[in-house]
Amino acid sequence: MAPFEKIIADKDRITKFIPQKPPMVMVEKLISTDEKKTITSLTILPENIFCEKGVLKEPGLIENMAQTAAAGSGYKSISRKEKPPAGFIGGIRNLVINSLPAIGQVIRTEIIVEHEIFDALVVNAKIFLNDRVIAGCEMKIFQMKT
Description:
15% of the residues lie in helices and 43% in strands. It is an alpha+beta fold. The protein has a single domain (14-144), classed as Hotdog Thioesterase (Thiol Ester Dehydrase, Chain A, Roll), CATH 3.10.129.10.
């Protein structure tokens, strides 16, 4: 993964954009976001609640993809001077997990918003380790305005 010169939020500020709080935070940095695409990163740490036997397990990867979408939505909400919405996963399709990242590795997650209808998002998500896709899916996320 190439180094990023500008990061929107690091681990000390990321919870400003997502509803999750430690120990459920599965994104570390908000790297970029626009109307369609959001990119985050996460360093896999041994204290991560989804780590087992030296790797981040499947539920952690799924939560990472969902929180990447939440970070993008949260950033947009704060830009409009609104509170970031809480949300929940409404469905997952075509989930593929090729490998599990090990403790100490850094993953980069990209989501692309395919459709936004009322308070529902349909996103395509991919997780990269270096430049290799290790996981991906289509996810429906329902947002609750607060």
